[in-house]
User: Which sequence fits this backbone?
């Protein structure tokens, strides 16, 4: 595959460059001064807070943050898959790891070879080379027998994502196609990727789900019509109740052109769809999209995890084929710091009320192929397996793919300084290396997942269940309803505390 | 979330106005939105002055509910109310003097079949159709809601009172009793507590709009008034219309969430959308 | 992900990306090993384990750009002499400031009032004559009264009650009392005497014997309970709870408000004033004032954004039911439901106890049940 021509190793100016520098020097100096004063006065310094205080004092604006919240308790590492191995001598490659989404109300389905997908990361919050790397990697995987789903994110789709199939180009007029090619050329040139072969670029072998978010950042109706699925984004885990943000410094001219907005001005999506205020409105919206797409493609509804029992009840009654739930640690390109940190519940904690909502609904309805996809803090096979065991059908991965492209987790995606060149334009992303990394990541994760299912004696990854998992922590047991490895659970643990208390208090009739 | 409706006859003295029939028409026209429950409250002055009725739901078997009625005079009504407030098994749902509340799970048609709504007369009334979103589908979670604080208060509600817990805690601290887990009940309890304090129903509505948060439209009826109130941002719909009447039937004001409900009963003149945050009250003549 | 685990996670994923083959250990295996080695981590600041439930479908969020979110707060119970703040913050702090730092602070407070973002000040100093902002003077002697908008008295025992009676006769404005760790015993009495609220400094109170080992959330919970008990059977006329101490960022302020705080006593602006004094080569009053101003404006935006995302158009509608926790300790101390389960740890223990005594036929009365519950939850604390 011919990707890119030669580009110099020396300092490289990307014409899709930002306008402002993040973290002004005086903010950092100010923060050091604050730390000094606090220390000298004998108070306790919380350096993270001081940095935020310094930033607010410098510009009077709400400080942003990116990627996921620093959740103190993720529960995942307190869960153990009993006797399963991610690495096995045996060949479990015939374990069925596929996932089907759709069919509950849609005529068509999306079938993927793995139960995990690429979470929504939009062009704008991540740069073009990163998007192209994922595109090529997913194509390569599809050619190698692993079809995996990609989600566009809320900032619209790139031309080759919308027009990457022959069918989608069939009815295009010559003028329209030329303008698409012109825009593509602009995009490639600005990122020094002119060497890419157009035919190879305009190939999409993987299924694409487009996001229908409150900002409605697309101009071409083909965005919805050429998609394999539409996800109505009500919210995401990182900023529940708050709309999407792309800081003005990241709205370059090309990003603006792709989204149909003004460049260099921050792109704020409203915190709610202006036409979805309650359950009846969601029903109306789903039906509207079904009409538009002739009831053919699956419609998915995405929410962040917060009042999740009530939200799931509404989604189940809304004619959607699938729900996506994003735990609070799900990442983002930019969100107000406090909104990211303080709103939403953890992924594992949300699975309990989701199971309840689904079970309650199906007590009075027949099973009909409704699917659940869960995101938020999941990046490897073991976490995927645990989430599936607790009730998910599929899983979305975001940060994992960034890591595969070289992300160093400094969490400054909302500025321009990304050292890996994924979300910033000051460093150059190595596209070939990223494609290789993503390819290996997905391939290996699939094998590990099959090993887990196989070593548990299952023929399908979807058959991993709650009884395969145990916990080592009281709170995790309460929140997940899973037992400890010795067979006890939180009820028996608390009962034994009660026994101890009764003995300690020497209560009448109570000596156990 | 649901369909709400209400109407006030121009001539309150007319004891034979077909209030029940008009309400039933309005509700049946909105049935497609909500099928989990239906309920009405109708006010008729001709009911006896010194007799009060306290109605409760009582669970019978797995999912059936029977209705118990406790008749009282003004002498023993407080005592009976106390007993009910202190009994957690009792699912209180209506404290009546001139008012009658009838409500049940299921469709509006079924409500009419069971209780003969179309034959009920009066001066004004309100109606409601329910889609359950947060509380269970049971008869005591259906609207209209009433309160043990004062008789003849009924409310129907579309939307959510998001600071319900705060309002409820504060009212319970003051000493008022709640009987369900529905956020709609707080409207009835709040209004009753204010009327008890200063007697001004319009002021009570304004105080509620100022205090309550979230998207809502409600219709509240007392023995001599009916009001439609929208939250201060106007997030939920609400509409009023007037039927000028003919030789066959008298004139009345009608209100509902949807224009279609007004259409069906001919209340198509003087169409008006109540201002967000400003209660629109009609008094009985 | 936790800061100290980021490198581990990255290394683990990169192994997959470089080899394309399964690993020997998953990231959770690695994380577990590290945590076992470093010993069971004591829960740090409990604030970090408390989260709010955001609004999406079952209730819609408000949009702070288009819909006005109310932050206005009134201090004062009866009469016309109420103080109105546009942001529920009183500057209150333990940093001693130089005169020039104080001048910078006063300038910032005036500018905030000009910008419809009025906050107040609690200070030992005499109030400035031409000020635009409300000034609460910390008094211990009525003779030192110097025309403030409000008064803060420190609680020093029965003498305080006498002082209150004296001051009430001569001063119409709001009176707040800064309480000590025994506030549960005397708050009702003080409110009966007519004070308008209490100031609770959580940093000081958690150093006391009574609240040793506990966190600010336990103090706030108990303080709110004390005020609520006063109002049992009465109509609430607006006594306010001022919480100071460990509430120095917008997230903690929102959580404190959820637990019952009406106003936040905030001292980071004092810190900024002090830094302004030390860091520049020559102190610039205007630059420091601008920094304080900016900081408060940013905080104001955060304080409108978070309630809007939770579904409220008024900051003061935040209530305990909007919060959940991922810590058993926090659940016990603040009576906060656990996430996902929606019950407090105490509720869970009560339910298990009820079923246990019934199935095992253990005879314990209500009082004894309460003792058992207390002992079990104390252990988890």
Assistant:
């Amino acid at each position: 595959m011919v990707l890119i021509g030669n580009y110099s190793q020396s300092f490289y100016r990307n014409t899709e460059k930002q306008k402002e520098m993040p973290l002004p020097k005086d903010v950092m100096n100010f923060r050091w001064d604050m730390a000094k004063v606090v220390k000298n006065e004998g108070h306790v310094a919380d350096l993270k807070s001081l940095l935020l205080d310094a930033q607010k004092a410098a510009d009077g604006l709400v400080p942003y943050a990116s990627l996921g919240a620093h959740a103190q308790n993720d529960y995942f590492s307190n869960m153990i898959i009993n006797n399963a191995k991610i690495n096995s001598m045996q060949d479990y490659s015939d374990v069925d790891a596929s996932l089907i989404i759709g069919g509950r109300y849609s005529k068509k389905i999306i079938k993927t070879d793995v139960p995990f997908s690429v979470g929504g990361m939009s062009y704008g919050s991540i740069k073009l080379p990163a998007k192209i790397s994922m595109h090529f990697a997913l194509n390569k995987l599809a050619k190698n027998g692993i079809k995996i789903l990609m989600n566009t994110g809320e900032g619209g789709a790139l031309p080759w994502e919308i027009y990457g199939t022959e069918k989608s180009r069939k009815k295009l007029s010559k003028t329209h196609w030329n303008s698409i090619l012109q825009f593509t050329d602009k995009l490639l040139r600005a990122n020094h990727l002119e060497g890419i072969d157009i035919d190879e670029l305009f190939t999409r072998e993987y299924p694409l789900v487009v996001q229908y978010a409150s900002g409605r950042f697309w101009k071409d109706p083909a965005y919805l019509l050429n998609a394999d699925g539409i996800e109505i984004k009500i919210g995401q885990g990182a900023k529940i109740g708050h709309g999407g943000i792309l800081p003005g410094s990241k709205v370059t001219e090309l990003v603006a052109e792709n989204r149909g907005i003004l460049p260099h001005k921050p792109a704020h999506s409203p915190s709610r769809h202006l036409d979805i205020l309650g359950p009846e409105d969601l029903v109306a919206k789903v039906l509207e999209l079904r009409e538009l797409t002739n009831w053919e493609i699956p419609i998915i509804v995405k929410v962040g995890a917060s009042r999740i029992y009530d939200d799931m009840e509404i989604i189940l009654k809304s004619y959607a084929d699938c729900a996506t739930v994003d735990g609070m640690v799900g990442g983002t390109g930019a969100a107000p710091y406090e909104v990211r940190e303080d709103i939403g519940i953890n992924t594992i904690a949300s699975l309990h009320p989701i199971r309840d909502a689904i079970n309650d609904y199906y007590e009075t309805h027949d099973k009909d192929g409704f699917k659940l996809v869960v995101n938020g803090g999941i990046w490897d096979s073991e976490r995927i397996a645990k989430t599936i065991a607790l009730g998910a059908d599929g899983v979305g991965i975001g940060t994992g793919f960034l890591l595969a492209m070289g992300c160093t987790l400094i969490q400054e995606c909302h500025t321009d300084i990304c050292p890996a060149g994924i979300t910033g334009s000051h460093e150059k992303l190595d596209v070939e290396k990223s494609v290789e990394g993503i390819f290996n990541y997905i391939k290996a994760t699939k094998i590990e997942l099959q090993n887990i299912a196989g070593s548990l004696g299952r023929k399908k990854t979807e058959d991993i269940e709650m009884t395969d998992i145990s916990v080592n922590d009281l709170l995790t047991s309460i929140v997940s309803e899973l037992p400890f490895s010795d067979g006890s659970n939180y009820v028996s643990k608390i009962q034994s505390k009660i026994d101890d208390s009764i003995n300690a208090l020497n209560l009448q009739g109570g000596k156990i | 979330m649901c369909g709400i409706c209400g109407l006030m006859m121009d001539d309150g003295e007319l004891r034979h106005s077909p209030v029940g029939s008009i309400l039933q028409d309005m509700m049946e026209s909105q049935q497609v939105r909500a099928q989990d429950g239906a309920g009405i409250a109708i006010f008729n002055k001709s009911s006896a002055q010194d007799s009060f009725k306290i109605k409760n739901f009582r669970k019978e078997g797995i999912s059936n509910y029977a209705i118990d009625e406790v008749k009282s005079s003004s002498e023993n009504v407080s005592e009976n109310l106390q007993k009910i407030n202190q009994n957690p098994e009792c699912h209180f749902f209506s404290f009546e003097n001139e008012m009658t509340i009838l409500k049940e799970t299921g469709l509006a048609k079924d409500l009419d079949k069971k209780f003969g709504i179309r034959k009920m007369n009066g001066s004004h009334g309100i109606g409601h159709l329910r889609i359950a979103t947060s509380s269970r589908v049971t008869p005591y979670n259906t609207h209209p809601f009433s309160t043990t604080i004062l008789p003849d208060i009924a409310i129907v509600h579309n939307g959510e009172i998001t600071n319900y817990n705060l309002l409820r805690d504060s009212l319970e601290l003051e000493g008022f009793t709640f009987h369900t887990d529905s956020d709609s009940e707080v409207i009835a309890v709040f209004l009753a507590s204010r009327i008890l304090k200063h007697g001004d129903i319009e002021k009570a509505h304004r105080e509620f709009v100022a205090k309550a948060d979230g998207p809502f439209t409600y219709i509240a009826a007392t023995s001599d008034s009916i009001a439609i109130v929208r939250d201060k941002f106007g997030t939920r719909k609400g509409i009023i219309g007037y039927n000028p009447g003919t030789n066959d039937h008298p004139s009345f004001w009608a209100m509902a969430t949807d224009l279609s409900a007004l259409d069906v009963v001919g209340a198509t003149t003087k169409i008006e959308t109540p201002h967000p945050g400003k209660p629109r009250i009609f008094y009985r003549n | 992900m936790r800061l100290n685990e980021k490198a581990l996670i990255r290394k683990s994923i990169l192994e997959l990306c470089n080899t394309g083959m399964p690993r020997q250990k998953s990231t959770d295996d690695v994380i577990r090993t590290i945590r076992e080695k470093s010993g069971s981590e004591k829960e740090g600041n409990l604030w970090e384990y408390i989260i709010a439930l955001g609004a999406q479908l079952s209730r819609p969020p408000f949009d702070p750009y288009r819909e006005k979110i109310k932050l206005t707060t009134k201090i004062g119970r009866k009469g016309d002499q109420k103080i109105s703040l546009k942001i529920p913050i009183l500057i209150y702090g333990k940093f001693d400031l130089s005169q020039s730092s104080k001048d910078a602070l006063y300038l910032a407070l005036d500018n905030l009032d000009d910008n419809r973002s009025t906050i107040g000040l609690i200070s030992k100093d005499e109030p400035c004559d031409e000020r635009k902002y409300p000034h609460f003077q910390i008094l211990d002697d009525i003779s030192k009264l110097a025309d403030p908008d409000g008064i803060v008295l420190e609680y020093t025992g029965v003498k305080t009650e006498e002082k209150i009676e004296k001051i009430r006769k001569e001063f119409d404005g709001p009176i707040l009392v800064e309480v000590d760790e025994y506030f549960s015993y005397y708050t009702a009495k003080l409110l009966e005497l007519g004070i308008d609220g209490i100031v609770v400094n959580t940093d000081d109170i958690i150093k006391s014997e009574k609240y040793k080992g506990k966190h600010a959330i336990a103090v706030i919970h108990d303080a709110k309970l004390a005020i609520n008990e006063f109002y049992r059977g009465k109509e609430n006329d607006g006594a306010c709870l001022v919480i100071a101490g460990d509430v120095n960022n917008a997230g903690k302020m929102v959580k404190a408000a959820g637990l019952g705080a009406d106003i936040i006593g905030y001292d980071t602006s004092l810190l900024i004033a002090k830094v302004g004094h030390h860091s520049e080569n020559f102190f610039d009053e205007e630059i420091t004032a601008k920094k304080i101003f900016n900081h408060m404006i940013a905080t104001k935006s955060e304080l409108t954004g978070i309630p809007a995302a939770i579904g409220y158009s008024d900051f003061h509608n935040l209530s305990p039911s909007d919060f959940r926790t991922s810590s058993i300790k926090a659940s016990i101390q603040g009576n906060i439901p656990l996430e996902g389960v929606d019950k407090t740890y105490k509720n869970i223990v009560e339910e298990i106890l009820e079923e246990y005594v019934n199935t095992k036929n253990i005879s314990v009365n209500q009082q004894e049940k309460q003792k058992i519950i207390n002992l079990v939850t104390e252990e988890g604390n």
